[in-house]
From TrEMBL:
Membrane topology, from the record: Multi-pass membrane protein
Residues in TonB-dependent receptor-like beta-barrel domain copies: 419-968
Family: Belongs to the TonB-dependent receptor family.
Name this protein carries in UniProt: TonB-dependent receptor
InterPro entries recorded: Beta-barrel_TonB, Beta-barrel_TonB_sf, CarboxyPept-like_regulatory, Plug_dom, Plug_dom_sf, TonB-dep_OMP_SusC/RagA, TonB-dep_OMP_SusC/RagA_CS, TonB-dep_rcpt-like
Signal sequence bounds: 1-28
Domain TonB-dependent receptor plug per the UniProt entry, residue ranges: 134-260
Record PROSITE patterns: TONB_DEPENDENT_REC_3 (PS52016)
Origin organism lineage: Bacteria, Pseudomonadati, Bacteroidota, Flavobacteriia, Flavobacteriales
Compartment(s): Cell outer membrane
A GO CC term attached to the entry: cell outer membrane
Amino acid sequence: MYHKINFFKFKKLIPIALIFLVANQAQAEEFSVNYSVSSQVNETITGTVTDQDGSKIEGAKVTVLETGATAMTDASGNFSISASIGQTLSISYDGYGSQTMKISSTSISVSLKSKKEATSIEEVTLVGYGSQKKSDLTGAISQLKAENFKEGMNISVDNLMQGKVAGVRIVQTSGEPGAGVNVSIRGIGSIRSGSTPLFVVDGVPLSNDAVSAQSPNVGLGNTSAKNPLNFLNTSDIESITVLKDASAAAIYGARGSNGVVLVTTKRGKKGEPMFTYDTYLGFSSVIKKLDLMAADEYRAAGINKLYDHGGNTDWQDEIYRNAVSSNHSVSFSRSTDTGNYFASLSHLDQDGIVLNSGFKRTTARLNAEESFFDNKRLKIKLNLTASDIKETGIPNGGNAGSDGQVIIHALMANPTRSVYDETGGYTNFNMNAHYNPLYLLSIYNDKTNTFRVLGNTEATLRILPGLNYKFNLGIDKTMSERNTTIYPNVTDRTPKGMYVQANLDSYNVLLEHYLTYDFNLNRHNFNVLGGFSYQKFKSTGTYFGVKDIAAQGAGIAPELNPGYSGTAFVPGAGYAQENELQSYFGRVNYNFDKKYLLTASLRADGSTRFGKNNKYGYFPSVAVGWTVSNENFLKDSQLINELKLRGSWGQTGNQEVPNKITQASSSLTQAAGYYLYDNLNLINGVSINRTVNPDLKWEVVEQTNIGADFSLLKNKLYGSLEYYHKTTKDPILNIPSRPLSPTSTVWKNVDAKIVNKGFEFSLGSEIIKNENFTWNFDVNGATVNNVVKDLPVSAIYSGEVSGPGLSGVTANIYKNGYEAGSFYMYNYLGVDANGKYIYEDINADGRIDQNDRKIFEGAIPNFTFGINSYMKYKKFDFAFSFIGQTGGYLVNNTALDLNINNLASDRNVLKNFYDSGANFTNQPQLSSLYLEKSDFLRLNNVRLGYTFDINQLKFLRSINLYVSAQNLFTITSYTGYDPLVDTNKQVGGNQSLGIDYTTYPSAKTFILGATVKF
């Protein structure tokens, strides 16, 4: 039958082909007897395709039925095709009914009608191990599509969610390109096990462990971990789905307590093959400068005359630069009757705004899907991405103290000093723990190369109608090498130089089998899922170091030949970690008459991380929904188009704890040694390092969610409302052990609770939609109230503060009745007549000591929000987004290092400290003087674009040119660089929250870009 059909079409094409050939070789009048030239000669037919509201449709397929010639509409809905008057056009577009029409003129217009009036409730949304119509969802799920995150320069997928999803907070640990990002969903739920959600990329759950080699300490501290998600090319991402409540996330069991983020990459779409080239050029500068004393102000402050060095230097201008970034990405996509294909190649080169810092990434991706056998019975899908990342770092370790941070050296540097001395070399400050920041950058070299491959193969077999078996095999492999050098120098930080090479190999393999069965019994609709999952994680690391190396520029660089000079001091050290997760899961979705919904799931997870008495944890959930708008009394409502009420309860787990903590650990040490023989030689004894706890189990998060989804006024106003109550139980802590235990601390679950509760809303409106102008606007917001309960110890401390004389001082406290990570410090009241600081005497004993510290509100903002707008007028497009927060606080540890006492020690100070009248002799103390509100409103992104339709060139569909800006302005009272920051200052593994210590600043960026479609 296949050949007959094609032969039939071929026969119909014969006369048309003959006419075309003959008409080009003879006079038309010679054939007037047999053919009508006016109706058969091909002409250029142009037209426009719109929807029923008059909006232009891009990607509609136009086919001449008689010849099979095809064309696709461009971004303005226009097409051009060769055909003859009287022939028939077929116009089709996914989601719309196809339309045929006779060609009566060379210019036509077509209006397509949707197969079913499109509403948000009919959209398909990803869920764990499958997808559902939005109308059938019972959990709190938010989905972003590619069009939601076009604007801006974003290295990592988590940045794309900023301000777009209610209840999701994105906080940078550093503004350095590729640096880590803290993502929290619905508050902070753990003291030490982390609050990062589980990321699942194309069906493969990723580990939240570091995938690039850790920064060694060569005397300047350890820099913060890089973002494990920075290997993905954000242009390849099709959608991001956030599972927020337990009903949605419980199918991921032991790793769903902090929420789940599903990332899906692009595939070939229906229509003609598409070739796309995306490029941009970005220009970045520091988001703001701190208000330090200038050279003239410094001299006029009454400082010691020895501290006037005769120069005039703005040290912030010296270390910060106008950075240039470029990105090039090409992609090809195609869809056939049996499958689809997507391939891309990209290169990103981003300079950091601090000298010597940068990020380069090259990625390649191939996504393919093909169907086999009768009626596509078997589907094979392949997702493969590879990335090569090269990073150059700076000495800015969060644990280095004031003497190891290049940024704090620049901020503290006396403005009367010069960068260079009379000989043209760097000026030597000749001070302990304080150096010329440009010199420090010149003697430090830190390069990391990370190669990562993530891929998976899925096979789906339709066993019976509605019954499908799926197999998923995934592999995540990373190899990373980091070379860190500090050359011999004139400072007191490793003056003879040091080189360290660190290597990391990580391997993650996933194996899954599951069945899905969809069936209907009259008005009863069922979807049943059951499966098995096994995942193994393995990481190994090696490192070695050489000290007393050759001077910079002498001989061969250590990273090229570590054996050229120096003495090995770390001879081939290494480590290995391995853990496994075995899971069984099931879920039932039930729908009666498209009105009443029920979802129930259960997952059992077994992990090698936990004790033999609690290898398995069980995580159930249940949710119900009522689609009120499908009831008879609302079916004809002109006000309410969609209304669904839903509620859920469930439990999820958190296994983000160190490996092996349930097992005993011991070592041979001299401290535990004894004298066995008469020769008095000391024999090493056994020292117990860790107490066994076979009862250790998962932290459990229990969550209740009540929500409503709605669409009003013919879908002009739509959104959702949520109330959630989320409680973390059985938190895992390393707490003091009982008397006579072999170690002073033990890992165990305690009876404490961390409660997060609040409201979320998402509201949107298609304010205007007509042929020439479209305007969509949405706003989202979330509240959170966080409190610690039933902690079995009086308090847990974290958040180590850096600064002279502040060793061992902490800023965070976990205590019953207070927010997690609240601040604990002296209460600053002002200055007295002599300029001395005044602190509140809490216990009224006439002196200020540790007993006078007070608990203040913490870092978690009680309200976060985002505002997003998109407009399109003819060929112009304009979009902007705002983000903001209120109710949180930050400890400005940078300001603490720039305290008034610096004027007495040849260092600079924040101008407002001098203006306050404080005495130079005041010693720095952690107090509320350095506690500031982190409230802000930021224009996060703005973009203006124009699309050119290239009708003259058939191979070129459209060109979109745009200008964009990020972090254009921020309204805030915070005096640091950025109120949206969190430096990792943890103590004993307990999370620190809301500390800003000379963090690499954020950048303000302007972008010129283009998207070309072929």
